[in-house]
Amino acid sequence: MRQDVRKPRRSVLYVPGSNPKALKKSSTLDVDAIIYDLEDSVAANARNDARTAIIEIINSGVNKNKEQVIRVNALDTDDGKIDIKVLDKCNPDAILIPKVNEAKDVKAFEKYLKNKETKIWVMMETALSIVNAYDIAKSSKYLKCFVMGTNDLSAELGIEEELKRTALVTSFEKCMMATKAYKLSLLDGVFNDIRDANGFEEECIYSHGLGFDGKTLIHPGQIQICNKIFTPTAEQLDKAKRIVAAFEDARKKDPNVGVITFEGSQIEELHVNHAKRIIEAELLVSKVTELDQSEVIQTSSSKYKIGNFFENFKLGQKIIHATPRTITYGDCALYTALYGSRYALHCSDEFAKKLSLEKSPIDDFLLFNIAFGKTVPDISLNAIANLGYAECKFLKPAYPGDTISSTSEVIGIKENSSGENGVVYVHSVGTNQHDEPVIDYKRWVMVRKKNRNLNKAEPSIPELNKELTSEEVVEIAKKYDFDCTGYDYKASGSDLCYEDYSINEKINHIDGMTVEEAEHMMATKLYQNNAKVHFNHFVEKGGRFGKRIVYGGHVISLTRALSFNGLSNAFKIIAINGGTHASPCFAGTTVFAWSLILDKVEVSESLGAIRVRTNGIGDAQAYQFQHQDSNKRFDPSVLLSLDYWALIPRKK
């Protein structure tokens, strides 16, 4: 049994006691409270089985991290008299009383509370309940929450559906005053159209603005939006902490201070109290996710996968990623259709043969994205952001018909100071069907914690090289054994070669390409990258940005394709020194690109390597060569900054 403390009640889901499937699913839902229903949603002939099922699920403990409430039928009914006997066999957190009219209806339930930790909630769904709201609010020390029954109340008052929210304002305000006066929670009624996510979100925003603590729900699909609206944002929480700290500092200097100036505004004690309520709300929200380590592991090993959270990663952990991928000519054709890349090496078998290859290999970033996509279900499914890459080496060409597999090792972990997430460093290798490494890279990714109250992990940050040495570049390049003496400049589209580029030279690639919603979705599916932030608009509309984020690999491939106009003979990427996704990209953004030549290395008499930093620019042309300011902050238009080595022919 949970201790009697104030609890977050942002999202409160009705679950019919007669629905075994819904009961079973309830333990997997990120909801603050569950109302097991024995009243409206349960047919009379199904109530005996429903009572048994509710007793079993409460006693099983599967939902002990949630507040569990049973809605019984009214005591003046036969079903109500039987329902209340469930308290003899289980200990819910509360009983929800329907059709309350006055204070005595609440008092009548007190004698049935065998366990005094079980509290009382009441449905405010009749005209009399609104009239008597103040008396009801102070009727019992066990009373903790008002639940608005907007459907029944509207029916009794004869309110038309389209006018319901406006017509009920008086009822809302009266219950609001009563609950605030007597320190009770107040929950808004349900939103009936489970298909209308926009309407539901608007109603949540309206409810939150009125002062409701949360909302009752009828479908799991409503949970995430509801939690988002009724949870303090990071910005609100940060400001609240700063207000409280500033006021406390002022009080230390002058115990009688009543007003301070904070960031240009006057702050009084009432503002400080509001800030403290925001901090308290955030602390309460954190309690609802409390699980011990064994529960986290158990959840992660269930029949369906929810992905690894930060606390699931351990230093030295080795992961063999599922589903090897045999690359087809269809994959290559779709990749070309998505990006329009024109590098001759990846377009023409005859061109590739002149460079000593057996046929045209797949595009370097098609290989990168496929190998990367294999790792996502185990590493990035619960990621907040992919932060960067290092020491990426393209070791062998991959061809249509090759089968790519991926493995990873955790080489570093660092929990962030907030305790809400941490950075995981992994070393991943993609191999072909002969177990030959074709790509080898390291990356670091910010991953959510499932249980922020677990002890902080000891940090271990690996030392990563910021760049490959010239010797490493030459070593990788020579393994390809390219012969550029017969390089076909007409076929490649340009006669520019190694000697035509200078260190610190900037190149504006001129062309722009708009990211289409369907294309970035198709690309991400091509790589079998199932990260939630790229696919699920229903969920992501309640996320940080209110919409899906374009996968960073899509921006990389697009930027590389755009750089053809100016770097068409930089025909083969062999290494990535590092990369930064400086800003998120969204559908509708037009991407431009520019490049800076950072370094040059001679590989052989016919072959050289150039080090290039290419920046992908969003919704701004690249002639200003946008990058970083003096404080190393990226210009807002920079989507991607990628530092890589590419092979290029030398003059004959």
- Mind telling me the CATH superfamily name of the largest domain? Hotdog Thioesterase
Radius of gyration: 31 Å
CATH topology group of the largest domain = Thiol Ester Dehydrase, Chain A
Our count of domains comes out at 3
Q: Characterize the largest beta sheet: strand count, sense, and whether it forms a barrel.
A: 12 strands, antiparallel
Give a count of the beta strands, DSSP E runs of length 2 or more: 22
In one word, what is the shape? elongated
Topology:
Blueprint: E1 11-16, H1 20-25, E2 33-37, H2 47-60, E3 67-71, H3 78-83, E4 94-97, H4 103-110, E5 119-124, H5 127-131, H6 133-137, E6 143-148, H7 150-157, H8 164-167, H9 169-181, E7 185-188, H10 197-210, E8 214-217, H11 223-229, H12 234-253, E9 259-262, E10 265-268, H13 269-287, H14 293-300, E11 318-320, E12 325-326, H15 329-339, H16 349-354, H17 364-379, E13 383-394, E14 403-415, E15 421-431, E16 437-448, H18 470-480, H19 489-492, E17 506-508, E18 513-514, H20 517-526, H21 532-535, H22 537-540, H23 552-562, H24 564-567, E19 572-581, E20 590-602, E21 607-618, E22 638-649
Parallel strand pairs: 1-2, 1-8, 2-3, 3-4, 4-5, 5-6, 6-7, 7-8
Antiparallel strand pairs: 9-10, 11-14, 12-14, 13-16, 13-19, 14-15, 15-16, 17-20, 18-20, 19-22, 20-21, 21-22
Helix pairs in contact: 12-13, 15-20, 17-23
